[in-house]
């Protein structure tokens, strides 16, 4: 998957913003101000960190040990790093973006969830 496809998919989700708060090499996507993925723009192949349920994170790392790693510079229990060199099914990548987004949304305050619903 390339950066354009990844970026467009993230931005198609409700209330998503993008920014470069950690410098020009790391593109961050947030929902209602909370980060759900960060993409390293200077890595080849493309790498992205995504939030993940801890049990599922372990399963994914075991299934795809070359391409799904503990989250680089993140809480390794809750974040995975995806190495997108063409070996991961694009459908799985999109599913993991959705999973990360949904996890972050589920953790929003009641007020933020209401704001999101009203957008």
Outline the structure in words.
There is one protein chain. The protein is α+β, with helices and mostly antiparallel strands and 119 residues long. The chain has helices at 3-11, 54-63, 90-106, 110-117; strands spanning 16-19, 26-31, 34-40, 46-51, 68-70, 79-84. It comes from Christiangramia antarctica. Pfam families: YjbR.
Topology:
Layout lengths: L2 H9 L4 E4 L6 E6 L2 E7 L5 E6 L2 H10 L4 E3 L8 E6 L5 H17 L3 H8 L2
Antiparallel strand pairs: 1-2, 2-3, 3-4, 4-6, 5-6
Q: Could you list the spans in which at least 5 consecutive residues all have pLDDT below 50?
A: none
CA radius of gyration is 14 Å
CATH architecture: Alpha-Beta Complex
Approximately what portion of the residues adopt beta-strand conformation? 25-35%
Query: Between the first and last Cα atoms, what is the distance in angstroms?
Result: 29 Å
Structural class: alpha+beta
Task: Give, in spatial order, the strands making up the sheet with the most strands.
Answer: 1-2-3-4-6-5
Q: What is the residue-mean pLDDT, rounded to a whole number?
A: 95
Number of strands: 6
User: How many H/I helical runs?
Assistant: 4
Task: Sum up the overall morphology in one term.
Answer: globular
Which CATH C-level class is it?
Answer: Alpha Beta
Largest sheet descriptor? 6 strands, antiparallel
Query: What is the total number of structural domains?
Result: 1
Helix content: 25-40%
Which fold name is given in CATH as the topology? Aspartate Aminotransferase, domain 1
Return the string of H and E elements. HEEEEHEEHH
GO molecular function: DNA binding
InterPro entries: YjbR, YjbR-like_sf, YjbR/MT2646/Rv2570-like
Pfam family, one: YjbR
Protein name: MmcQ/YjbR family DNA-binding protein
């Amino acid at each position: 998957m390339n950066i354009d496809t990844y970026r467009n998919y993230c931005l198609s989700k409700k209330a998503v913003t993008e920014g470069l708060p950690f410098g020009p090499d790391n593109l961050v996507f947030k929902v209602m101000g909370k980060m759900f993925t960060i993409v390293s723009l200077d890595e080849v192949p493309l790498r992205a960190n995504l939030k993940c349920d801890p049990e599922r994170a372990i399963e994914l790392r075991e299934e795809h040990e070359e391409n799904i790693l503990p989250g680089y510079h993140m809480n390794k229990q809750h974040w995975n790093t995806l190495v997108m060199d063409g070996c991961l099914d694009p459908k799985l990548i999109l599913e993991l973006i959705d999973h990360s987004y949904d996890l972050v949304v589920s953790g929003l305050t009641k007020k933020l969830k209401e704001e999101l619903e009203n957008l």
